[in-house]
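Input record (one chain):
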Amino acid sequence: MINKYRQHAIKRMFERGISEFDVNSALSNGRVIEDYPNDYPLPSYLWLGYIGSRPIHIVFSENHQLGERIIITVYEPNPAQWLEDFTTRVKS
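The corresponding structure, as predicted from the sequence alone:
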């Protein structure tokens, strides 16, 4: 699957010091922690992966017909909003 990056993702990656290599690394060692089947035009997913010991969340969708993974945004999860494992949101 080929990664395609939305402009928003590229901007946020630049701001947060996250490279395409980092995204590929995080995608190779993580897992889906939330899915959004009703997102349009394609269902999307929230992925937790790591760059070394740095947790990274990646929101992406997949277009299987075109063999594309569309990277929507990338960020380091805020510990105040997530439990220690970064897979469960803190209840407000």
